[in-house]
Amino acid sequence: MMSNDLHAMPAPSRPVAGSFAPSIADFEVDELPRYAPCGAGDHLYVRVEKRGRTTRDLIAHAQRVFGLREVDIGYAGLKDRHATTRQWLSLLNVPTDRAGALDDDAFRVTEASRHGNKLRVGHLAGNRFRVIVRVPDDGDVSAELETAHAWMAQFAARGLINRYGEQRFGAGGRNADDARALLQRGFRGVPPWKARFLCSSLQSELFNAALDERLARGWLDRVLDGDVLEKSENGARFISTEAGDQARFESGEVAITGPIYGHRPHIATTGAAATFEAEVLAAAGLDTDALRAMGRHAEGTRRPYRAPVREVAVTQVEGGLELRFTLPPGAYATVLVSTLLGES
Hints:
- With 344 residues, this protein is α+β, with helices and mostly antiparallel strands.
- Helices cover 29% and strands 25% of the residues.
- β3 and β4 form a beta hairpin.
- The longest helix has 26 residues, at 192-217.
């Protein structure tokens, strides 16, 4: 839960004067599993440290090493290429004593156990990040440390504006446009993983459009009639019909969610929220027929407009500042850092 008073924390007076370039030395991500493997079952769970490679690279490597089909491999979330990351995979019918066969220059298995079910996307509690912000040689590191503390305190109190990061949209931001082309010509001949990946980029673009429009209208922290709210305690969702829901939001009891448009009806259906979310879809040149065309590749859901930021710490290191923090699944460390640096 975030601050007991959403507006109690004043905004920092300026951004941090520094820079961040994702790299295996300056960017670390640790996946936090939702559950531990039980020790028995058909699936080998391996925790893999990867350096400078994508999760898709890791999956392809596991297919080659063990002769598996893609469907035999499970993962909880995609992890960055330009980073040192640690995440879990599940491998069907691979003996435990073969886990180390995955090791090479880019991948290293650090844990292995067995479980009864395949690991699925979303089966994680969150991600823990370590980020190094570089301060120029002529900069005042002590002053930037103080400013960074103010920013991180605000994130901890108010949450992070939960925008999808640029890496979601691929080189040149083309992924969403490629998804629009697929909706026009159909998905025949496109691997299912690629269809899901491209459709998720379009969904992300639409969510960001809704978020940015609420920001522009001054509605990001305002509960509209018909908004779909999410309880911070357990994630349960309900439709806002009470004026008192604004106070519940400001206390951190509930979060306002935005639409991840998809073929199932996860769009607000009543009140000002329904009107707003229909307007966002129309402004993007799409309609419910286009959403239905995504089919199983994009079912749709909801996403909070703000994400909680936990386990916050800032320390001075050689050449800059070290930030440590934890975000829920799907929230972007790069968005937090670009906000802190005044780049978004």
